[in-house]
Amino acid sequence: MPTPKDAPIERPVFGKLLKFWRGVHRLSQEELALELDASTRHISFLENGKASPSKAMVEAIADVMSMGQRDRSHLMIAAGFTPDTQAVDFYAPDYKWLRKAMSLSLNAQDPNPSALMDSCGNLLMVNRGWVAFFQDMLGETDLLAVKNYYDLIFRYLFGQHDMTGWENAPSLILMSLQQEAIFNGDVQLQKAIERFALYPCVPKNWQQIASKVEPMTSFRIPIEINGQLESFFTVTHNIGSLGPAAFLSEPRLVMITLYPEHKTSHNRISKPTTPIEHPLLTEPPQSASG
């Protein structure tokens, strides 16, 4: 189909971003070319889409413009490359503000069970509702042994009853993790996925099942409570930097909260009336007078 003569010329996203950042730093094409030891013609071709940059060129441009991790990641994605990111220590002093923000977020979900984890599912923080809910199911000793959220889901929640009719839930979880591992080249996550896939509750054809279901930020999971199967919504919040690189920039954190689907299930979740203890428990919210 021919393109109308008055139709705007579409330039690749990388070219648009490059021109934008030249403007931010008040660099002409000639000045940028000099910094990169490249020709002005090549810079022009990068901006109008006649040439594509190598990964080394993108890194060099980011260095010249002293880009931080977020903006460097955006430039990499626009050029068709996966950003190189380094894992960060959630417990490092520099992230005290983030731990405080996550603590407030988790406490706001009480009494609904809510947990914060890293991209591999390793638990970082939990709220009082989470401890109370799963302590009743597993017991204090077994719950203390749980280090990974997905191990908890696959072993204790999905593994305690017949999953017939609920095959979508474990399949969707694994499909989401698998694509993230491939996209990011995350070796540790890939090893975790291979371990999760061995649980009996995971269908052998989980990839085919998940491929036919559109993933959402929320889906239902079955949880057996006192011999009765209850349905819960699991709502996922991905926590990262703002912008296109939100799912790539470190720290890549995930907060998952369980909400009972039916009113009758609300009785299963209530505020703890006795002191709750757990090494990952957030600090209790301060009173208005505190």
From TrEMBL:
It comes from Marinibactrum halimedae. This is Transcriptional regulator. One of its GO terms (molecular function) is DNA binding. SUPFAM superfamilies: lambda repressor-like DNA-binding domains. It comes from the Bacteria. Coiled coil: none annotated. Residues 265-290 are annotated as: Disordered. InterPro entries: Cro/C1-type_HTH, Lambda_DNA-bd_dom_sf. Pfam families: HTH_3. Residues 18-64 form the HTH cro/C1-type domain.
